Each structure stands twice: as C-alpha cells, then as structure tokens.
Amino acid sequence: MTAVLVTVAAGALGAVIRFLVARAFGTRAVWAVLVVNVVGSAIGGAVLALVGGDARLILLTGFCGGLTTFSTFGVETIQLVLGGKARVALLSVLANLVLGVGAAGVVFLLLH
Fold it and tell me: Is the Cβ–Cβ distance between 12 and 66 less than 8 Å?
C-alpha cells in the first residue's frame, strides 16, 4: 500500500509541474506539451538506466506519467487540424515522437 501512495504523490508532483509549464507557455500550449513530453521521456530513460524494482515503477508510472501527457497531445493535434493548421499538427507529432524517443534513448545510453 505504501508503494501505491508514493506513486500517487509522485504522479501529483509530475502533474503540478506539467500544469506550471503549461501556464508558463500560455497560448503556446503545443510547445508546453512538447517540453513536458521530451523532458519526461529523458527522465524515463534515466530511470530505466539507473533505477530498479518498485522505485522504477513509482517514478515511471507516477512521476513521468503525471508529467507527460498523451491525451493532451492527441487533443491538441486534432484541434490544430480542425483549425486549419495541419502542417503545425504534423510537425508537432513528429517532434514529440522523434524528440521524445530520442531523449529517452540518448539519456538511457549515456547512463547505462
């Protein structure tokens, strides 16, 4: 039960940080999502390389899960397309995938 509560706290911390980043970016929400997804992926790569057991699960599921956001990414992509900004939507999708996976991979390789 303790691991569950720690995961909840870690998720809450990640979500609060995501909220603060989104507020800092204001109307440029696409950039906020990209930043939290890339940073969260980099942290995930570090956790994968350095942490094991329950701590890994707590940090990946809790903190990184609270920090990163796939649902917002999906909704904002649809909003961009509906708003006539298909090119920006495509660039956002590519940037999130390439930079997110790239950050996780690079950090993992550097620390492993």
Answer: yes
Report, in angstroms and rounded to the nearest whole number, the Rg of the chain calculated over CA atoms. Answer: 15
pLDDT tens, position by position, 65-102: 999 988 888 989 999 999 999 999 999 999 999 999 99
Q: H or E segment at 90? A: helix 86-111
Report which residue type is found at 63: F
The predicted model gives 11-32 an average pLDDT of 94
The structure tokens listed for 67 are: 């920090």
Are 43 and 103 a contacting pair, CB within 8 Å? no
CA proximity to 14, closest of 43, 46, 34: 43
Q: Return the HEC string of 33-57.
A: HHHHHHHHHHHHHHHHHHCCHHHHH
